[in-house]
Amino acid sequence: MTSFHTQTATQTLELLHTELNGLSAAEVVNRQNLYGANELVQKKPKPAWLMFLLQFKDFMIIILMVAAIISGMVGEMTDAIIILIIVLLNAVIGFIQEYRAEKAIDALKKMSITTAKIKRGGAVLSLSSVELVPGDVVLLEAGNAIPADLRLLEAYNLRIDESALTGESVPVDKITDTLKTADIPLGDRFNLAYKGTLLTNGRGVGVVTATGMQTELGRIAQLLQGDEADTPLKKRMTVFGKNLTYIILFICVIIFVAGWLRGEDALKMLLISISLAVAAIPEALPALMTIALARGANRMAKKNALVRKLPSVETLGSVSYICSDKTGTLTQNKMKVVNTLSSSPALESTGLSPMLLTMALNHDVQAKAENDVQGDSTEVAIVEAAIQELGFEAFQNLEQRYPRVAELPFDSDRKCMTTVHQFGTQFLVLNKGATESLLPALNSAADQKKLEELSEEWAKQGQRVLAFAYKVIPELPQPFSYETVETEVHFAGVVGIIDPPREEVKVAIVECKAAGINPVMITGDHPSTAAAIAGEIGILQAGDQTLTGVTLAQLSEEAFLDQVENTTVYARVSPDQKLRIVKALQSKGHYTAMTGDGVNDAPSLKAANIGIAMGINGTDVSKEAAHMILLDDNFATIVKAVKEGRRIYDNIRKFIKYIMTCNSAELWTIFLAPLIGLPMPLLPIHILWINLVTDGLPGLALAGEKAEADIMKRKPRGINESIFADGLGYHIIWVGLLMAGVTLGVQAWSIKTGSTHWQTMVFTVLSLSQLGHALAVRGERSFLYQQGLFSNWPLLSAVFFTFLLQLAVVYVPFLNKIFRTQPLSWQELGICVGLAAVVFHAVELEKWVKLVWRKKAATAQL
Ligand code: ADP
Ligand code: MG
Fold it and tell me: In the prediction, which pLDDT does 464 show?
């Protein structure tokens, strides 16, 4: 391994057989074949066969199989075989679920890939960083994630956050000088940049020395690849599931002992209790949850919200504040200059006003043709206006006539920028920026007053106002900084730019407010501009407050906490103040989403409960810090994601409700039968069958349930709210009891009337009640007739299919033998279906009662 930090830039290029202009196309193909893709290879996935075998590692399953084999040897061989087959089928379903969960997560991982700007054969290309090879020349700018290991060839104010690699949180200043000692820590190799670290400042060029697993990050990648973090809910459910397992085992032991003491056959009782334990322990829940979350995340991605971590999918529904940037997120980012005022006459030799000169020269856009101007949208608007005034050719000539020799780049803290141009033997200093930023630098009080009045007037109309200033100086000041350069300048003029709000945002804001979510605008713009636009889109309403960065800086923490919930617009704030806003909202108990795009936004994105980066205009650094990325930079997409988050959480509740109620019904039935003097209602195979067909298909289909009509009309769910809140726990117990009640009722009645197929009746009633229940739990607050029977096809098909299977078990002679069932008469089948309908209607009635309660509570509150 070459120590590139001890080589000069030229030596490095030679060693890598490349040049400043980059590799040739042919060479790139060669190297891609040689080195492969520039990506970190994930830990080898579990092979499918192992995943399948692991389905049997469950302790209870093993016991069940052993018990089945023993009972087979001493008694009924068919029973034993059926039990083994059912266990096998269970494993198949478990395997499919887990496999799908894994695939869904893989698909998610593939989506967030960064791009890099590189030079090949002299041309600059923007490529997926996966395509890089050693020898590629990479152009770096502030906000980039470093795509591979690099030896730096150029570095201007280059600062890199290497915490991902070294743990050091202070960004490191980078240089291009050659270092002497080979054997120094990574963090001290100041002329190298490492894959996965983040460029926070400056600009540079580097040549790729290593890609993929050969990079420093790749070498420790094995260490980093811990298991996917579980979501909070999954963690809680795992703990809960463990406790539940003990309870269920305890109940099963009681059932076994009680049956044995009553004189039942011990082996038979053992098999019953173990089957019951296997059926009642909800082992499918974690996999189902992963599927629901991962699929939900995939759906969100299709709606342009890319969620980087699964826990965010689950918690999105709790968001109660969305703090959003204005430009580009709430507005269209299609800026257009609508007002200009030039305040000084043409500048001597140029024949042009200083205003026009500044518009044409003070920017970082790339103007390739009259209608092909790329860059920051504010600057694009200004340059387009300048081109229109000058003509494209004259515009281009200006850049050659007055070449740029120095600059103080735009920065959202200072809110202005300065460029310096060769002006004969002198220098022309051009400034543009926010009114307040330029105001103190102006050399005339009259101009200051004029600028202030004008900006206020235009800002009130919702325009973004930028002021221009200039001066001609004989030589560049030393040191060159804004304190020495941005002083005593002449007022050149002002422009007013409009950026119309996005149409869909107005609707989204109404939706937010109905859903108990407070939208807040945070912008670097002038307070009047911000207020005008916030008013137009409905963020700022009567009684709401606007705060500026200056006022915010003066507010004490307590005073701010008093106001934070009423403030819907923050103007002229700097990125570090966004962090303060997030923290204040959080300390008021709000689950806060916050958008951001720049390097400076990373801390507030990390601190927010849901940090949201912009996919189009966002830097890699902000994306890296974010929980979610908006592929279309659109506020309305956040609201869609929240809605999706709520739906997913609802659905998780639905299948938990469904599966656990089934299990509770099975437990109650077996537990209560002897207490009321009835014989054992079911055989082990019946219990396992119900567990197999009911838990499996309808449960999965519930995960795909559509959002209920009121989903965005409820308040956000409290972040610490239990999954069993709002009566879910009671539901599991009482509906389970109800199902057991009708089942045992049927048992008692048919035994009394001397029916020989009482057990088939019991089996069928219990099985069909589950199906009735599946249809009813589709809606938590809406009735099935409102949702429509056909609005969840997979579920309807699952219910229908399961019904057919049950009929088969009851009517196919071969299956009669296996399941010890007898064909039911039409009347008997009718009774079974009728009782399942009773369960269905009871659950619908529960919703109705809750609805009335909720209405009462709501009116009581008024
Ligand atoms: P926003 O929160 O709307 O994205 P910015 O931080 O981009 O706000 O801009 C804040 C202010 O800085 C603007 O109102 C404008 O006055 C000024 N500004 C924006 N872009 C530039 C630029 N390229 N050059 C100079 N000043 C700018
Ligand atoms: Mg901006």
Answer: 94
* pLDDT tens string 469-485: 999 999 998 888 888 99
Residue 335 Cα to ligand 2 middle (Å):
12
- What spacing in Å lies between the alpha carbon of 409 and ligand 2's midpoint? 14
**pLDDT band with cut points at 50, 70 and 90 for residue 281:** confident
CA distances, 688 to each of 90, 172, 216, 767 (Å): 9, 62, 52, 11
Q: Which CATH architecture has domain 312-332+502-633?
A: 3-Layer(aba) Sandwich (3.40)
> In the CATH scheme, what is the code of domain 4-42+108-224?
2.70.150.10
Closest ligand 1 atom, CA of 328? 4
Catalytic residue among 136, 161, 325, 499: 325
Cβ–ligand 1 contact at 434 (below 6 Å): yes
The more confident residue out of 538 and 376 is 538
| Ion ligand 2: protein residues whose beta carbon lies under 5 Å | 327
pLDDT digits (tens, 9 = 90+) for 710-745: 999 999 998 888 889 889 999 999 999 999 999 999
**E strand or H helix that includes residue 46:** none
Q: Phi, psi (5° rounding) for residue 483?
A: -65, -35
Architecture field, domain 336-498: 3-Layer(aba) Sandwich (3.40)
522-552: pLDDT as tens digits: 999 999 999 999 999 999 999 999 999 999 9
Contact yes or no for 290/227 (Cβ under 8 A): no
Burial code (b: 16+ CB inside 10 Å, e: under 16) for 639-674 equals bbbbbbbbbbbbbbbbbbbbbbbbbbbbbbbbbbbb
Looking at ligand 1, which residue's alpha carbon is closest to its atom 9? Answer: 524
Condensed to tens digits (0 to 9), the pLDDT of residues 203-233 reads: 899 999 999 888 888 877 655 444 455 677 7
Record the pTM: 0.87
Q: Provide the pLDDT confidence category of residue 692 given band limits of 50, 70 and 90.
A: confident
For the CA of 379, the nearest atom of ligand 1:
23
Decide if domain 232-304+640-861 falls under CATH 3.30.70.660. no
The alpha carbon of 118 and the centre of ligand 2 are apart by a number of angstroms equal to 25
Mutate to test the pocket of ligand 1, among 415, 486, 521, 604 (most ligand atoms within 8 A of CB): 415
Task: Please determine whether the domains at 312-332+502-633 and 336-498 fall in the same fold group of CATH.
Answer: no
Is 58 one of the annotated active-site residues of the chain?
Answer: no
Give me the residue spans of the domains in the chain. 4-42+108-224, 48-101, 232-304+640-861, 312-332+502-633, 336-498
Phi, psi of 567 (to 5 degrees): -90, 120
- Please spell the DSSP secondary structure of 470-492, one letter per residue: EEEESS--SS-SHHHHSSSBEEE
